[in-house]
Amino acid sequence: MRKQVLCYGDSNTWGYMPGTGTRYEENIRYPGVMAELLGEEYRVIEEGLNGRTTVFSDRMEPERCGIEHLLPFLLSHLPLDYLVIMLGTNDTKSHFHVNAREIGFGMEELLIRARHILDTRGSEAEIILVAPVPIHPEADPMFDRESWKKSRELAPVYQELAHTYGCLYLDGGSAAREVGEDGIHLSIQGHRALGEAIAEIIKKHEQRG
Questions:
Q1: What is the phi/psi pair of residue 44, to 5°?
Q2: What gap in Å lies between CA 152 and CA 91, rounded to an integer?
Q3: C-alpha–C-alpha distance, residues 177 and 25, integer Å
Q4: Nearest CA-CA partner of 84 in 168, 147, 2, 142
Q5: What burial class does residue 75 get, using C-beta atoms within 10 Å of its C-beta: 0-12 exposed, 13-18 middle, 19+ buried?
Q6: Closest CA to 192 of 174, 175, 204
């Protein structure tokens, strides 16, 4: 059986194309880039949803709470070898009124839930926690200047969580700085860089194993 990698995220995992709202082709989206680089021995599964948060419910965009959907998505794709989680950008929206540390509390709850689900099913899947690429939204009414600031503060919070919970870690902002014209969603170059960086983490982990 091929090794299974599940990418659990928001619109940047879905492949939202800045400026148009349509979807990048599969080979352009970062999970597609990962699949290309990892080769036939791996199956990379996308589970991206526009507007998905870590733990926050949004009345304007319902059914976007990441922790609530985690159980069925994990169970439907077992057995897994890697779970890539990249969430937090939508948590910086102004109407949630939370800071980077509070977003980290949400991610912590999601990590605890993910590990519990995997452990109780006998899965030894590695979790790769990815701090989202920082944003600089210019015109989206759901984000403000504080969103810009909070998105830059997530990396050290997530790095600490990865250390605490034994996750592999990637600072998305150090790997890919290319967001598109809306200042939120990854450009083609950003997807390529992020996919390359996550694939490299998996390759290095396999070599160590």
A1: -105, 125
A2: 13
A3: 20
A4: 168
A5: exposed
A6: 175
Half-sphere exposure for 137 (CA within 13 Å, toward CB): 20
Return the structure tokens found at 103.
């977003």
pLDDT tens digit string along 113-139?
999 999 999 999 999 999 999 998 877
Check pLDDT > 80 for residue 209: no
SS3 call for 16: strand
Cα 3–Cα 156–Cα 204 angle in degrees, nearest 5: 30
Place of tokens 């605490």: 164
Stretch 25-33: mean pLDDT = 98
Compute the distance between CA of residue 67 and CA of residue 83 in angstroms, rounded to an integer. Answer: 14
DSSP class of residue 142 equals T
